[in-house]
Automatic annotation (TrEMBL):
Organism: Weissella muntiaci
Bilayer-crossing regions: 30-48, 60-78, 84-103, 110-130, 150-172, 184-202
Name the record gives this protein: Nicotinamide mononucleotide transporter
Cellular compartments annotated: Cell membrane
NCBIfam families according to UniProt: NMN_trans_PnuC (TIGR01528)
């Protein structure tokens, strides 16, 4: 199996951070994606731009568009096992935090902070995190055959507990402290995303089942948010694009296709 770091141009001896100032690095990270991913990227950017232009242009609308485009590109990069999510994900997450707080969805803002910690910073500061990505991807059900330390039952139980605790903690945080108008949907969506991010960090392809569920929940959350006048429809459509990417991951990405892992 070919080393993924050679495919992506990642120098194993130094953090990805030092490559951020090299234009060639960005070209390499967006090379050799699946054809479907390129088509989805072009369509998504064009569609999100058209939706932004069709609505009143405000500073928050421009920032929302920027976060949406960077965030969507990030999800495609992850699907294609590229560490581009470090820089793009970090920028989009910071903007998403501002947008989510402005829209009165505090749990979603917290979720973006979790993304920064679990998905973005490791890529930027840890050389080993971004190497051999394809080789480390597997299903939870495969850990036994790979002779890993923890069993599949351990991981299933752990993720279930994390999901329940995250949902309860965020729900009570919203109803007791922030008094969010959408505590149940916002906290539940964030809990799903936290588990999905943790699974992705641990290189479990099962994470995409959570990303699909989270995408559906985000569409509902931002659809309700827009209908209540707290946000535009741009993020509603953005998460519909995320769902399309998750569908691509199931059929044409290293996360599920062994033939694409090296």
């Amino acid at each position: 199996m070919q080393n993924t770091s050679n495919q992506t141009g990642v120098d194993q001896s130094k953090p990805v951070f030092f490559d951020l100032f090299k234009p060639a690095w960005y070209v390499e990270q967006m090379s050799n994606w699946t054809t479907v991913s390129y088509i989805l990227l072009a369509f998504g950017i064009g569609f999100l731009l058209s939706q932004t232009i069709a609505a009143p242009i405000t500073p928050i609308a421009i920032w929302t568009l920027l976060a949406a485009v960077l965030g969507f590109t990030t999800t495609l990069a992850i699907t294609n096992a590229r560490p581009l999510n470090g820089v793009f994900g970090l920028i989009s997450a910071v903007i998403y935090i501002v947008v989510a707080l402005h829209a009165k969805n505090p749990a979603d803002a917290i979720l973006q902070g979790v993304y920064i910690i679990l998905l973005d910073l490791p890529v930027l500061v840890m050389p080993g995190w971004a190497k051999n990505v394809n080789a480390r991807v597997r299903r939870i059900s495969e850990v036994g055959g790979r002779k890993e330390r923890f069993s599949a039952n351990f991981w299933y139980t752990t993720f279930a507990i994390i999901f329940i605790l995250a949902w309860l903690a965020l729900y009570f945080f919203e109803i007791k402290l922030t008094h969010s108008p959408r505590p149940l949907i916002d906290s539940g969506t964030a809990a799903i995303g936290i588990v999905g991010a943790l699974m992705t960090t641990l290189r479990f392809s099962d994470s995409y089942y959570f990303w699909i569920a989270q995408g559906i929940a985000q569409v509902i959350l931002w659809g309700v948010t827009a209908s209540q006048g707290d946000a535009s429809l741009v993020l509603f459509f953005t998460y519909m694009m995320y769902l399309a990417n998750d569908g691509v991951a199931l059929f044409a990405s290293p996360w599920f296709k062994h033939s694409l892992r090296g």
